[in-house]
Amino acid sequence: MTSSATIGFGTLFKRGDGGGTETFATVAEVVSISGPSLSMDTVDVTHMESTGTYREFIPGLKDGGEVSVTLNFLPADATQNATAGILKDYNDRVLRNFQIVFPDSGNTTWTIAGYVTAFEAETPLEDKMTASVTIKVSGEPTLA
């Protein structure tokens, strides 16, 4: 059977403008995207009569985790800089909507709301400048 797998090339990372009819702009020169890293807590409900002395659990709260994005760092670019871009979101501590748009035939999209919690630029002597961005997801990520 032939696989339907595809490579990640062509995936877009977009940042919402926060407007009433929100518009999303593609963040420039994204190299990789990781996440959201979904997880769920468990609550121990073991009691004195639990069968076979085994612990029992029920599902607890869900967590949207984090999204990590690596960029070719362009300090003056409007989607990355401290004036209008992701670095501004970090400085302003603002909840922002983001989208990850996959390169499949249906343009499947993860939509998240989150806070930029980390922005780390790297400027090596003999290699490209990069930035690593971490976004803490707030609420439920939507895959559609």
Notable characteristics:
144 residues; mainly beta; Factor Xa Inhibitor; eight-stranded antiparallel β-sheet; two-stranded antiparallel sheet; 1 helix; 44% strand
Tally of contiguous helical segments: 1
Question: Over all CA atoms, what is the radius of gyration?
Answer: 19 Å
Mean pLDDT: 96
Q: Whole-Å distance between the termini?
A: 27 Å
Task: Tally the beta strands.
Answer: 10
When the domains are counted, the total is 1
Q: Class, according to the CATH hierarchy? A: Few Secondary Structures
Let me know the largest β-sheet. Answer: 8 strands, antiparallel
Structural class, by secondary structure, is: mainly beta
Overall form: globular
- Note the beta-strand portion: 35-45%
Query: Uncertain segments of ≥5 residues (pLDDT<50)?
Result: none
User: What is the annotated CATH architecture?
Assistant: Irregular
